[in-house]
Amino acid sequence: MTRFDIPSPDAAAHAAALERLDGLVKPVGSLGRLEELAAWLCAASGQVPPPPIARPRVVVFAGDHGVSRLSAYPREITAAMVRVFLAGRSGVNVLAREVGAGVRVLDIAVDADLSDVPDAVRAHKIRRGSGSIDVEDALEPGEARLAFDVGRTVADAEIAEGADLLVPGDMGIGNTTVAAALVAAALGVPAEEVVGAGTGVDEAGRARKVEAVRAGLARAGSRVSDPFELLTALGSACAAATAGFLVQGAVRGVPVLLDGVFSGAAALVAAEIAPDAPRWWLAGHRSTEPSQAFALKALGLAPILDLGLRLGEGSGAVQAIPALRAARAVIADMGLLADLA
Fold first, then answer.
1. Distance CA 241, CA 151 (A)
2. Is 313 assigned a catalytic role?
3. Which residues pair with 282 in a beta bridge?
4. pLDDT of residue 1
5. Residues in the chain with pLDDT < 70?
6. What GO annotations for molecular function exist for this entry (predicted)?
7. Of 35, 143, 158, 313, which is the active-site residue?
């Protein structure tokens, strides 16, 4: 497996940040999580105070999944949503504009003809749809690594254009079932504990999703011990691309703000591929899907926000950007107790 050279956040900057935070015009620790985030940003940037978050970027990895039949919505929605992203009318488009974040959508594995959309959207397409994980592998041999490398390439491109905060987004009917399968396999958690309502299925629909995940786990067997085999058997091209995106952000020393259940599952697999990568990741928000909680606990990440969201797309993570900016403002602009007259 490839070894990734991932830098360590600056421990000296982190220590200096904590010292400064304790000296601000407030009781020690009174700004709670904002102080923790401020110190984290200082360590990531190697500066006290850290620079402003000037160019956050969301990349939405779009693709269809063979288990989409278990969703409350038809898989044709995925292709339709790609066009909505391009029109700037999706949930994440609207929310990202509010915080000055750019949004890019990529067709990684959409099972539709998207010849009418810009070539740049289709430039990294791996395949049309992923296999139904309860009865077959999601990907063909070699496709997981190919998609992983696509994610790395995309991260590099965004960073080259000035991105200083990366947000992985997702779009694909059936992706919560895939996320649940990845988390269950990676952590050895029973299917019934990680499967949620997804797009809003009833209890009978959730039961069908549980059975699909169980079948997938039984079919994959011991192959899940290897992260790329896990992505091949139970993941998707989008999950593999997201994992590569997360790892490359860490390689480049650029903070990554995870979104919900899908990026959490991809992060869990990415951490197996590059164990030092999570030091560059933050969890933007808590999803209502149960598998995300398992993934974040395993990664040692605590969500910044808890708004009861389950949309995906990167929509929850972008709403955490103002909290990061507030944390930066605290350490940059508050006065010091030592300066009081």
1. 4
2. yes
3. 257
4. 64
5. 1, 341
6. nicotinate-nucleotide-dimethylbenzimidazole phosphoribosyltransferase activity
7. 313
